[in-house]
Each structure stands twice: as C-alpha cells, then as structure tokens.
Design a protein that fits this description.
Blueprint lengths: L9 H9 L6 H26 L8 H13 L3 H20 L1 H21 L9 H21 L7 H12 L3 H19 L2 H23 L4 E7 L3 H12 L4 E6 L6 E9 L4 H11 L4 E7 L28
Antiparallel strand pairs: 1-3, 1-4, 2-3
Helix pairs in contact: 2-5, 2-6, 3-4, 3-8, 4-5, 6-9, 7-8, 8-9, 10-11
Amino acid sequence: MRRSGRGHTPGVAADARSGARGPAPWEWVRDYLMMAAGSAAMAFGVTSLLLPAHLADGGITGVAIIIHYLTGLGVGPLYAALNLPLLAWAWYAQGPRFVWRTLVGVALVSVWMAVFAPVHLNPDDRLLSALYGGLLVGGGIGALLRAGGSTGGVDIVARHLHLKAGWSYSQTYLLTDVAVLSAVAVWVGLPAAMYAWVATNVTGRVVAYVVEGPRRGRLAFVVTTEAERVLRRIVADLDRGATRLLAEGAYTGRSRPLLMVAVSQQEVVRLRAIVQQEDPRAFVVVLPATEVLGEGFGLLASGGHPDAERDPRRPAG
C-alpha cells in the first residue's frame, strides 16, 4: 500500500467514506500485546545475550551498542535517543499514521532494555550467544511487524528511500549493515564483527519466518498441450485448484494453455511428477511465493496489520 502526501492513504480514505469497519477492539488489544511481547524478546536478546558476549547487531541497535561499548551509557536510552530525530523527521515527511506504532515499538524496546539490563546470560561460546541472541531479536522483531509495529531506525530511512528514490529495502539494509559491522570491527574488534554478522543473519531469517509464517509456498506456471489431463490430476491428487490462461509463444506464435497453481513447498515434487507423467514435453516454471492466502492455505483475515510496510527479510532497527 503506497501513501501519498503527508500521511494520506487513498484506500483508507475511501474506506472511511464508504463506511468500512476498522479493526475490532480485541484486534487492537491483540496487536499491542504482541508488540509488548515482541519488544521484550528483542530487548532480552540484545541486553542479556549479545551485550555480555561483547557482540553487536545491525542498524540503529548496532550503533547504540557501539556507543555503549565506547562510553558505558545504557543501550536503552541510546536506542531511544538515536531514534528520536528519525521519528521526528518521519512524522514530518511520512505522516503521523506511520510514525505512531513505530513510536510505540521504540518506546517499548527502550523500556524493556532498561528492565533486562541487570540480567546477563553469558554462555562460554560466543557463537551460542550470537545464535540465540539473533533468534530472540529476530523473533521479537517479527512479532512487532506482525502486529503492525516497527522498531524504527533504518526502517524509517529505508521506507523513505523506497518511496522517494525507488531504492529497495534490501539495498538500504545492506549498506547500513556493512557500515555498522565495519565500525564494530574497528572499535570492538574483528572477531566481534564476525560473530555480529552471524547474529544479524540469524535475525533476518527468523524475522522472515515469523512474518511470513508457514504460509510460504510455491507458484507454478505450466505450459502444456495436455491441460485437461494435468488439471484433473492436480484436483484429484493434490486437492488444489488452478487458473487456466491462454499464452502465446513469442518464437512459434502458437497459443497454448497456461496453468497457474499455488502449492505448498512439500507438494512441488508431486506436481512435477504429475506434469511429467501427463505431458513430458511441458514447460514448467516454479517460483517462491512469499505468502499464499486463501482456501487451502491461510485466511486473508490473519495476514497481519496493513501498516506493516517493510521487507520482512531484513530486521528492523
């Protein structure tokens, strides 16, 4: 969903004019409880696992950790202080609707960091600290995103560059992570930077899994002259539906049926076998589907909050 101007969302405005109902009260309660739990998990991973092992993370969190190592100041206050100018700028440039839940997320993370500051889990192996710290941080960020929240930081910059300059979220996250981890290598040490890279990658993968969940699937395109036979097998053997289109080959100029079918990752092998048995000369393309919602998969109503506009493959902050 793209926003235009300063906080105006055309689709939302249209819904308001047409009398569309907003989220139910229990959904707001659920979202904020999830944000509280997610921010607690993220804060615990940072203060109780990464900091005792003298490790860091990417983004604004990593900057706060570096300043903490250099000055001894608390990570929670530093995290909030670094986010405040970005939040003020986002409020002006992107509107209050985007900023509100981000502000709540930043405040919750900062408070939980202060609460967990005395709790230090210090495994003998720094790799374990990086792995489990990344796991908790990623799970926490993922829960925040599922609830429509955010941890601010690089998310704010990435969203602005995406809307105004066409940059992908991944480009911004990559540049900032390289910069932060390079600073970790200089001021904290190369081993710490290497372990921090492990933690950052674990965080990103966990965020993607929590946000996308088990609804990830595959989208298959099948060009075949035996469309009816393939369709019957898909319905009978996989218990899936399919969409039948008509495609024209650019080289031959001939028209052939094109089948589009969404399947789970586990069903790709069975689909391939069906097509091979019914039409060995078929042309098949299988693509990863980030999220599949609808009959046979997840419900559209459980797809998360509409304000969660970011690339789930990378952590916030």
